[in-house]
Design a protein that fits this description.
With about 90 residues, the chain is mostly helical. The chain has a domain of about 45 residues. The protein is about 50% helix and about 0% strand. The chain is built from four helices and no strands. It is flat and about 50 Å long. It starts with 10 loop residues before the first helix and ends in a 9-residue tail after the last helix. About 0% of the residues are buried.
Length: about 90
């Protein structure tokens, strides 16, 4: 793959790229490549876009509230105790 530098990017464009990439959970590079591909008519359609939930009947599903509670507990466990690393 070739690296290309783009010069003369206006601050408002740079900021918009940064915020849009963050919202989509992508890097600025990934977002820029997607925009370029789409602009050049080279955008590839995703081949597999279906979300599978085949095992839900066996294991059930979490409600949004349950997921939020579990997710917050997991995030608390991910906190690094700085005292342990000194």
């Amino acid at each position: 793959m070739k690296a290309i530098t783009i010069r003369g990017v206006e601050p408002e464009i740079a900021e918009k790229l940064k915020t849009t990439a963050a919202k989509q959970g992508k890097s600025i590079n990934q977002l820029s490549l997607e925009i370029i591909r789409e602009g050049l008519g080279l955008k590839k359609d995703r081949k597999y876009t279906r979300t599978y939930d085949d095992l839900d009947d066996l294991f059930g599903r979490w409600s949004a509230e349950e997921f939020s509670q579990i997710h917050s507990k997991i995030n608390k466990e991910r906190q690094i105790d700085q005292e342990l690393w000194r």
